[in-house]
Structure formats: structure tokens, C-alpha cells
Amino acid sequence: MRTLHNVHERVVDAPAEAVGALIDRISAPDDPLSPSPVWPPILFDRPLAVGADGGHGFVRYTVGAYEPGRSIRFDFPPEEGGHHRLEVEPLEPGRCRIRHVIEQHQGLKDSLVWNLLIGPLHDLFVEEFFDNVTRAATPAAPLSPVRWTGRARALHRLVFDRARAVEAPAGAALAHQAVPRPDFTDAWQLDLRPGMPRDPLAWREVLPFAVRGSSQDELLLGEDAAHLDFRASVLIQGDTVTLTTLVQTHNRLGRLYFAVVRRVHPFMARRMLRRTYRRLAFAAPPAARLERRSDGVVSGPP
């Protein structure tokens, strides 16, 4: 058994009150600090308060203690034990220190998982969180964002969301109109994280086919050939993006061709949707920048 004690600190050239006000907005709809969409957003089942239950991605925790504007302690589930906490410490006027600490007893297995997988991702997540604190609290100050190593990118890709199979959505009207009686249909879906583009045209590169139509929430791609017609729909609906494929064969050659292609199609469809999602996530701007009024109060954009 070992005790994990992981500490990250950063001095911010802003009053503790301003940074504390930002911390109080964690998990709120206008949260300016959660480094989404590259990372899962920090979400709770209620506004930030003692007892709020949630986490980010597969990391789950409950708010165990909360001093508004100063500190939050997040308790891991009882079977895991330990906690992590976020603190704002005033320094000289106009400066403060933000600190994140994890304390947890770990067995050999948990220690290996931490060192090989969770730890490097956690360190990167916290530093990107601190980058957003700096951006929000001192929008005019220069910032050198944390750099991603090749190992970090590989680990991030390993744990990134994977598309799930769903029924072809009825909302994919362009696709259903284009191929009313398909011989094959499947659909793959991902949840949209805050900050992801909701314009279907932004997802144009999901598949290398011609644009056949678009609407406010759907993009239709596809190709026609003598042996089969193919359509792919990208539908942005609610908080999800869905890639739907429809195929209509015309003759024996089309049926033979697609009998081979359909064996690899699910893998390729999932891969293309996930790859496009990650590319758009990394291209998205950082968390919302805040404006500082002349009286020093930090406020959100109008």
C-alpha cells in the first residue's frame, strides 16, 4: 500500500476573489474552466454544493466540502477512498495561488494503473484546467499553454469516447428521403461535449464523399454507382452527433461487393466518426474567455 500525494500549483496574477469566483462556477452551464471538449466536462447532478455527485468521464466523485471562493474537496467513491481538492490561496494584493491535490491510498494494481495511464492524463488535465484559470482571470496576459507529449496523445486516444450503435434516427430526413428502401442501414453516435461545433457542415470531413444535401441539423454525403448507391448522414440532434449509413444495391455485383465491404464497414464508420470528433475537439477554442471590467470584477461575455 502506498499513499499517492499529487500536487499541482500555479501563481495567477489576479486577486483571489476573482479566481475564487471562477472556481465557484465549476460544472455550471457557463463554466469557463473545464477543459472541454478535449476532455470530458465536469458535471454534477445539482449546482456545486456539498453532496453534489458527478465527475468527469469515468472519474467519479462527490463534493465532500466546499468553502465558496476558497476551496472544494471532491471525495472519491468509498470503494476507492481518498479525495482531491482545489484551493485558492491569497498572496500579495492582486495575486493568488491555485492548488490541486490528490491524496489516496493505493494498492499495487491501482498504483500501476495510475503510473502507466491515469497519472499522465490527470497531470495534463489539471494543467489545462489551470491554463483556463489563467485565461479567464488574466485575459490580456501572455500564456504558454501546456504542451502535449506523444505519450499523452496516445493515452488520450486510448481512453477517448467510442461511438455506440443506435437505431437510424428518424430525424435524418435527408438520408431517408434519398434512400427510402435501403438494403443496409446502420448508425453510430457520440455525445457532444460543450464547445463542440453544432453546424453539420463542420463535420464535412467525416467521410471522403460528395455533399448531396444539407439542412440546419443534417449533412448528407454519398456516391452513386451502377452497382449500388451509398448515403451517409451526419445528424446533430440534441446533445449527440450521429453518423447514419444507408446502402441500396442494384444488381448482383452490388450485393457481392457490399457483402465484402460490410464486414469492415462498422469498424471504419466508428473510426471515421471518432477521428473527426477528436480533430474538431482539438480545434475548438479554450473555455469561454471572461471580461474584466474597470472595477476589477470578472464577468462573462454579454
What does the model show?
The structure is a single chain. With 302 residues, this protein is α+β, with helices and mostly antiparallel strands. It has 2 domains: 2-158, START domain (Alpha-D-Glucose-1,6-Bisphosphate, Chain A, domain 4, 2-Layer Sandwich); 164-282, Alpha-D-Glucose-1,6-Bisphosphate, Chain A, domain 4 (2-Layer Sandwich), CATH 3.30.530. Helices cover 28% and strands 32% of the residues. The protein has 5 helices and 15 strands. The protein has helices at residues 16-23, 108-137, 150-159, 173-178, 252-283; strands spanning 2-12, 43-44, 53-56, 59-67, 71-75, 83-90, 96-106, 164-166, 184-191, 210-214, 218-224, 228-237, 240-249, 291-292, 298-299. The strands form 3 sheets. It has a 7-stranded antiparallel sheet with strand order 1-7-6-5-4-3-2. The chain has a 6-stranded antiparallel sheet with strand order 8-9-13-12-11-10. It has a two-stranded antiparallel sheet with strand order 14-15. A hairpin with an 8-residue loop joins strand 2 and strand 3. The longest helix has 32 residues, at 252-283. Residues 288-302 have low confidence and may be disordered.
Q: Which helices and strands occur, and which strands form pairs?
A:
Layout: E1 2-12, H1 16-23, E2 43-44, E3 53-56, E4 59-67, E5 71-75, E6 83-90, E7 96-106, H2 108-137, H3 150-159, E8 164-166, H4 173-178, E9 184-191, E10 210-214, E11 218-224, E12 228-237, E13 240-249, H5 252-283, E14 291-292, E15 298-299
Antiparallel strand pairs: 1-7, 2-3, 3-4, 4-5, 5-6, 6-7, 8-9, 9-13, 10-11, 11-12, 12-13, 14-15
